[in-house]
Amino acid sequence: MISRRDFLGMALAAGAASLLPLNAHAATGKVVVIGGGVGGATFAKYMKMKAPQIEVTIIEQNPIYIRPYGSSEVLNGHIDMSDLEVSYDALRNKYGVNVIIDKAVGLDADKRIVTTASGAKFPYDRLVVSPGIELLYDRLDGYSREVAETKAPSGWIPGSQTALLRDQIKNMRQGGTFLIVAPPNPYRCPPGPYERGALVAEWMQKYNPTGKVIITDPKNEFVTGPDMRLGWNRMYGYNVPDGSNQECQCKETLNEAGMIDWIPVDGGRPLSFDAAKMQLKLNRAKSKRTLSTKMPMKASKVLNSSV
Asked: Regarding beta strands 85-86 and 65-66, do their DSSP bridges make them parallel or antiparallel, or are they unpaired?
């Protein structure tokens, strides 16, 4: 079996070989990477490791990368916002990648030139585009970027919304509700909504033991589902639906609802969000159900699909 790292290295080496002339020592190939997130930075690093003679340039508009992976740990205080910051120093100094802090605004595919906002031009032999994700706020009626930035943050792209959501959780009234709207497939980080629910439940056990985490879902299953529900059951009193105990080796169905409640597709498909009332309307097979948050700042977590 070949490891993912070795496979990536072989793939990059093969790609680099296509850039080189017959005399490898005279190589002058140029690779431009638009986007310095996980995808772009990882590609640039391994390209330089496998083909150091290739000139690799990353064009990234943010001088510091704010990592999304692990960002939910900010919500329960495991880490601080500053712990999400990743610099580009290692790419520059250790691997020899040219990191340009600028915004790519133009592309001449015929001449193979990328133009940036500052007016600089970067010729290339090969171009890699790794721009990251975009939250589609309009996929839920009543939700918007403005609502997310001020009242009901998503926080899935880490930054100001993550900090706002953290503060809202801390200020939640006792017995308040933390609501997660999981997205339909496909989307980035499939375990994300369910991991986030568990992290918030962990915080509630210490500081808001009568609080509730509700996850509504337009799907009947999710990746790591049985294992995640087992963890919910054993640690947060998740009430396993009848007939599902054996699937996840959970305890017997509990008499009372626990701290986490997962509502799958038959009742968990969102219809609309009322930002003024902080209510989410759900679709049921024969009726409609409305869920409300119960906190002073009333933070609802709404996770949108990625393009």
From this structure: antiparallel
